[in-house]
Amino acid sequence: MSFIRTLDADISPQELGFTYSHEHIVCRPAYWSERGEDDLLLDDPEKSLLDVMDFKNLGGQTIVDATAVDYGRDVPAVYGIMQRSGVKIVGTAGFNKSFLWDASIKEELRPLIGDYRTYAEWIDASSINELADFVIREVEEGLEGTPFRAGQVKFGTGYNRITPLEEKTLRAVARAHHETKAPVHSHTEVGTMALEQIELLRSEKVDLEFLSLGHMDRNPDPYYYEQIASTGAFLSFDGIAKIKYAPESTRIALILDLVRKGYADQILVSGDTARKTYYKHYDYGPGLEHIVGKWVPRFIDEAGRAGLDGEALIRKFFVDNPARCFAFKR
């Protein structure tokens, strides 16, 4: 039996529908707040709601909110958006990457994790199994003491390196996955260290078909992608519209190359929309409507020119693949 866990209900994979696999909806990351980086604070639920409604009005049905505990989640606000919009939202337990941990822990978390000053202090002082227990509770009981449960578990690593604390959280997340059967998502910084993450997960005996790897399009390397895809893991191309990293022609060419090699069933597409300047209703950016409204038609056209069925591929990337990737399998 398999199911998808949204914030307030377990649903069948067939109910997921058209899905963005990596977004951020409301978050106030302490690391950025303490440094005055206002662009990285999605702190107005009403504006976030308007963008979610744009997504819904173009046929969007589900958003995976990849905001972990160390990235300033506002779980009640996100649940409110889910209720008001009718868009299903999948929450995330686990951790991000180590440089974000040099930030103050919000007061609401102290009763749950103890009186630590920063996330780094908490992670350093805790055992792998203690961290795993925290993640398990967020999947089985609720995120940050709320009744709204996580539908995936997450870890992250830095640029071209995995620190000892990052390895610790990776192993904790792997153990939480074994206990809960929740799917696993990883943050890769600029698309690096995916193969090293995979080897550590293998040492924890994680079935890599449960794994999705974020930010693959920031490391546009077809040979590297083939090595990753051959393990059975999902590759997340979640930087759509971020032209400063690569033009859309590059992303689409990389995706079509993977399709030709037989890996269409392992591709996810999203926007990782985590700045005010990426949101339409915060600061006039492309917004959550961009992928479904503009990128999808372009991809269908380019796939057709390449002799491929673009509409069938879009269904795979946004419907069929998420339904398998984000499923708990008992």
What is this structure, in a nutshell?
The protein has helices at residues 30-33, 45-57, 75-85, 110-113, 119-125, 128-140, 164-180, 194-203, 222-229, 248-260, 280-283, 290-305, 310-325; strands at 2-5, 10-11, 19-23, 62-65, 88-94, 150-157, 184-188, 211-213, 234-237, 267-269, 328-329. With 330 residues, the protein is an alpha/beta fold.
Describe this structure as you would to a colleague.
The radius of gyration is 18 Å and the shape is globular. With 330 residues, the chain is of the alpha/beta class. The chain has a single domain, classed as TIM Barrel (Alpha-Beta Barrel), CATH 3.20.20. Helix 6 (128-140) crosses helix 7 (164-180). It has helices spanning 30-33, 45-57, 75-85, 110-113, 119-125, 128-140, 164-180, 194-203, 222-229, 248-260, 280-283, 290-305, 310-325; strands spanning 2-5, 10-11, 19-23, 62-65, 88-94, 150-157, 184-188, 211-213, 234-237, 267-269, 328-329.
Mean pLDDT: 97
**Which structural class matches the secondary elements?**
alpha/beta
Count of distinct structural domains: 1
CATH topology value: TIM Barrel
CATH superfamily: Metal-dependent hydrolases
Summarize the biggest pleated sheet: 8 strands, parallel
Topology:
Elements: E1 2-5, E2 10-11, E3 19-23, H1 30-33, H2 45-57, E4 62-65, H3 75-85, E5 88-94, H4 110-113, H5 119-125, H6 128-140, E6 150-157, H7 164-180, E7 184-188, H8 194-203, E8 211-213, H9 222-229, E9 234-237, H10 248-260, E10 267-269, H11 280-283, H12 290-305, H13 310-325, E11 328-329
Parallel strand pairs: 3-4, 4-5, 5-6, 6-7, 7-8, 8-9, 9-10
Antiparallel strand pairs: 1-2, 1-11
